[in-house]
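Table S2 (text version). Query chain:
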Amino acid sequence: MLARVVYESMFGNTAAVARAIAQGLDGYGTVEVLDVATAADAAAPQVDLLIVGAPTHAFGLSRQRTRRDAAKRTTAPVAVDIGVREWLDAAFAAPTGSRAAAFGTKAATPSWLPGSAARGVARRLRRAGYELATDPMDFLVTDVTGPLVGGELERARTWAERLAAAELQRVASRP
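Corresponding structure-token output:
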């Protein structure tokens, strides 16, 4: 299986989850991990599985304004002009039968806090013509800037392993 993981990250949490997902997929095939700015310059993915993730900003996917605000809270480089929202909105039409999955990071507390970048990613993936391989998944951070809640990286690896195993079984059972 050939998989591509594309992510947007401001404080490193979503990037860490993307790398954990890649580790979970690694035993099932070849995995490429790209930040969204690099993915925007790359050719359209010709992969068996595209996995896209982003941090939850203002109850959904980031916008240029929320990325500018995040950039003020970190010394790490932040791609302000392009995020997963813009990348997917400008996306290529997915080839028929293309499969994808969506993940996001969001604050763990308060637990009632609405919104999920993962759900926004999933909507845009479907709009681009992808069939979702699984429901969108959120991974939790302790605060806006992190760190991740304990155990979330292992949960991401396990989620990816299950996803990859299910995809390989689906392909193997086709006539």
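Notes on Table S2: The longest helix spans residues 152-172. The chain has a mean pLDDT of 93.
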